[in-house]
Design goal:
13% helix, Immunoglobulin-like, 3 helices, 18 strands, elongated, mainly beta, 256 residues, five-stranded mixed beta sheet
Length: 256
């Protein structure tokens, strides 16, 4: 009787006590050829959906996982939605009982709780081809104060005429539910522009920063836009007469 009770207790703890949910068959089917058009899997990612609740959308294909690595905060509950782009794979977190088959055309889901910072290997337990043994990824559970879902993108001029303004269109996306208070810093040549911003939770902030090319002078100037730990960089060329270059091209067409 003691052994029977012990076995039942062990199984119960392994399936419930660790916060792991079993895989079910309630998810919709999905065409592997249409993943790039599906709002869930076109951009494999982690999303915050509630207080300490997250969803991870993962795509498995020969012989990688996307995203890789996956990063989630401590003290969180994460539901993984996983599908395959090509053949049968599996999504298994080493050291946990998160282990689900990943079948093309279907979406597997499994939920786990992560109480403290740790690192878990992601491996495929289903033979998927010659590179099967190299198919692996990483899941990082990081301290809460080190976790963020900020994305930065910048669209900037490659070339401007001396005397014109150079423009930098900056987009900051806040994927967390809490407001993000931060600063956008642009460094180009010897010029520095900083703008304090508040990005609402689960929202996007857009702004345009301008620099007078006269202050930069002719030549190539490296630029960097920084938001917290995120950076985008490039090179801006300031030329004496941009219109002359265009006129020369038009003149060449007339001669022809």
């Amino acid at each position: 009787m003691v052994l029977i009770v012990g076995i039942i207790a062990t199984i119960t703890y392994g399936t419930v006590g660790l916060g792991i949910a079993m895989v079910d068959d309630e998810e919709d089917t999905i065409s592997p050829s249409e993943l790039d058009e599906d709002e869930r899997f076109s951009d494999p990612r982690v999303e915050q959906v509630g207080e300490n609740e997250y969803e991870a959308y993962v795509v498995a294909q020969t012989f990688i996982y996307q995203p890789d690595p996956i990063e989630v905060p401590e003290d969180s509950e994460v539901t993984f939605y996983v599908t395959s782009r090509d053949v049968i794979h599996s999504f298994s977190l080493v050291g946990t009982n998160v282990n689900t088959m990943v079948v093309p055309g279907e979406v597997s889901s499994v939920t786990a709780e992560f109480d403290e910072p740790a690192e878990y290997g992601v491996i495929c337990n289903e033979y998927c081809g010659s590179g099967h043994h190299d198919m692996e990824g990483m899941l990082y559970v990081v301290p809460e104060d080190e976790f963020d879902l900020t994305e930065l993108s910048v669209t900037a001029d490659d070339e401007v005429e001396l005397g014109d303004d150079a423009t930098f269109d900056v987009t900051v996306e806040n994927g967390q539910l809490d407001d993000l208070e931060t600063a956008i810093e642009l460094e180009v040549g010897d010029e520095t522009i900083e703008e304090d911003v508040t990005v609402p939770g689960d929202d996007t902030y857009e702004t345009t920063l301008t620099v007078d090319s006269t202050d930069l002078g002719e030549g190539d100037h490296d630029w960097t836009v920084t938001v917290d730990d995120h950076t985008e960089s490039g090179t801006l060329s300031v030329v004496e007469d941009l219109e002359d270059d265009e006129d020369d091209e038009d003149g060449g067409d007339d001669d022809e």
